[in-house]
């Protein structure tokens, strides 16, 4: 029974993590306002900034601890293209590289 109750307090999704971060941020801002009233001047500002900086640290830890949704796998009749091997370290056959322009082989003949 206690384990069922404990599962209510587990953060399972990123949406829940963002809600918790929002709640932490509201509390941090309220605590920072309280510090500004109690400690006027530089000390109050320093404590207020420290309260709000904790939200970034805690938020980062929360978002890192929640697993991201799995990427959708590509499904369908199409397969990934096959990578062709190059001939002799070249991407094109040697005969095609020596051709210039759009001339045909017949027009290049010297009869």
Number of helices: 5
Question: Given the C-alpha coordinates, what overall shape results?
Answer: elongated
Class per helix and strand makeup: mainly alpha
Can you tell me the residue ranges where pLDDT is under 50 for at least 5 consecutive residues? none
Termini distance? 98 Å
* Main pleated sheet: none
Beta-strand percent range: under 5%
Order of helices and strands: HHHHH
Q: pLDDT average, as an integer? A: 78
Q: What is the gyration radius calculated from CA atoms? A: 33 Å
Tell me the total number of β-strands: 0
Report helical residue fraction.
55-70%
A few lines on this structure:
The chain is mainly α. It contains five helices and no strands.
Describe the structure.
This protein has 111 residues and is mainly alpha-helical. The longest helix is centred in the N-terminal third of the chain and has 25 residues, at 14-38. The chain has 5 helices and no strands. The chain is elongated. The mean pLDDT is 78.
């Amino acid at each position: 029974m206690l384990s069922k109750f404990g599962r209510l307090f587990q953060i399972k999704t990123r949406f829940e993590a963002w809600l918790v971060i929002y709640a932490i941020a509201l509390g941090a801002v309220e605590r920072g306002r309280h510090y500004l009233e109690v400690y006027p001047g530089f000390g109050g500002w320093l404590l207020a900034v420290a309260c709000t900086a904790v939200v970034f640290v805690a938020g980062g830890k929360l978002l890192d601890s929640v697993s991201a949704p799995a990427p959708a796998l590509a499904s369908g009749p199409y397969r990934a293209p096959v990578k062709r091997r190059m001939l002799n370290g070249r991407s094109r056959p040697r005969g095609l590289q020596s051709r210039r322009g759009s001339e045909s082989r017949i027009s290049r003949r010297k009869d």
